[in-house]
Amino acid sequence: MATSLKIDDALKSRVQHLAAQRRRSAHWIMLEAIQQYVEREEARESFTQEALASWAAYKETGRTLSGQDVRTSVSSTPP
């Protein structure tokens, strides 16, 4: 899929400079940046959804674990 990005001259210059330093194409630098951003945001969204599900489960059941309960459980679990 071909996509074009409009970036200002200052950012374009920074990308080109970094590409030259890394001996990569500007295309590679931009693609890498987008991939890292998307992965980071997907992980953040996954964390948010997990937290919301945990909060909903807590509100429904009222069940919690103390820090000591977690430490005891982790320390008694075989490797």
Task: Give a quick summary of the entry.
With 79 residues, the chain is mainly α. 76% of the residues lie in helices and 0% in strands.
Explain what you see:
The chain is mainly alpha-helical and 79 residues long. 76% of the residues lie in helices and 0% in strands. It has helices at residues 9-22, 26-61, 67-76. The chain is elongated and about 55 Å long.
Topology:
Blueprint: H1 9-22, H2 26-61, H3 67-76
Helix pairs in contact: 1-2
Order of helices and strands: HHH
Discrete helix count: 3
Q: How many strands in all? A: 0
Biggest sheet overview = none
Helix-strand makeup class:
mainly alpha
Shape: elongated
β-strand percent reads: under 5%
Q: Stretches where pLDDT falls below 50 for ≥5 residues?
A: none
Head-to-tail CA distance between termini = 45 Å
Kindly state the percentage of residues in helix.
over 70%
CA radius of gyration: 22 Å
Mean of pLDDT: 93
Essential attributes:
mainly alpha; 76% helix; 3 helices; 79 residues
